[in-house]
Amino acid sequence: MDYFIWIFIIVIMMISQSFLSSSYQKYRKMPTLHQMRGCDAAKLILERNGIYDVSIVPSNRGTLSDYYDPTKKVVNLSSDIYYNSSIASVSVAAHEVGHALQHAEGYGFIALRNKMLPATQIASQLGWVSIFIGLISNIDFLLMFGIFALILIMLFQLVTLPIEFNASSRAIVQLKANGIIEDSEISSSKKMLRAAAFTYVAALITTVLNILRILLIRGSRNRD
Ligand SMILES: [Zn+2]
Fold it and tell me: What's the pLDDT tens digit per position in 131-179?
């Protein structure tokens, strides 16, 4: 059973990664009718929403490393997204600006996630170490601590989902309302953002399965 879950985890991770990379490869080659670059689309959406204190910068972290940093109020876009005008570029840029809009508005789940962040960071540093040491040394307390750490990570990933879906739906609304994409391009844009969101769903499923796996290992040990 334990091995079965392990294989299932690997399969889910592989599916979500290949789904994202194949979607990205497809939509980065699909030009938009209005040919607006990702950075210009992002600037336009911010302006139209009356936000002037957020900057858009190109980052060199690599493919799809795009993120919004609320502490610095910076939208970081990977160079492919920043400089190009494909469906993928404007969609991902608008999604990251969607996070800036959420921040400006004080969107509820963001405040909750920020409160959970410090504990989750500790949990992700200590969780697996604690499980690993707990397993080899047979100390149940360490194993339980590790499982609670994974549960905390799972809750954090759960709170992240509505934030991601909301940023994507804001992106579609803004792309359309500001004339960055046409009606005929909406479904492509949605598909690109759905593939990106699926990685968050896959991460959550992976954590749930890992908790189950460790509980099963613990249960079979306690029986022995
Ligand atoms: Zn996002």
Answer: 999 999 999 999 999 999 999 999 999 999 999 999 999 999 999 999 9
Task: Measure Cα distances from 159 to 145, 165, 187, 194, 203 in Å.
Answer: 21, 11, 26, 17, 12
Whole-number Å distance, alpha carbon 196 to ligand 1 midpoint, is 8
Domain spans of the chain, in order of start: 2-223
Q: What is the pLDDT of residue 115?
A: 92
Give 96 Cα–ligand 1 centroid separation in angstroms.
6
Q: How far apart are CA 176 and CA 178, in angstroms?
A: 6
Residue 165 CA, ligand 1 centroid: distance in Å: 8
Handedness of CA 191, 189, 17, 207 (dihedral sign): negative
Q: Taking a C-beta distance cutoff of 8 angstroms, is the pair 33, 87 a contact?
A: no
Going from the Cα of 140 to the center of ligand 1, the distance in angstroms, rounded, reads 37
Residues 106-133 have pLDDT tens digits of: 999 998 998 999 999 999 999 999 999 9
Across-strand partners of 166?
none
**Taking a C-beta distance cutoff of 8 angstroms, is the pair 55, 109 a contact?**
no
Catalytic residue among 96, 105, 182, 185: 96
Residue 182 among the catalytic residues: no
Ligand 1 centroid to 34 CA: how many Å? 24
Residues 176, 60, 94, CA angle at the centre, nearest 5°? Answer: 10
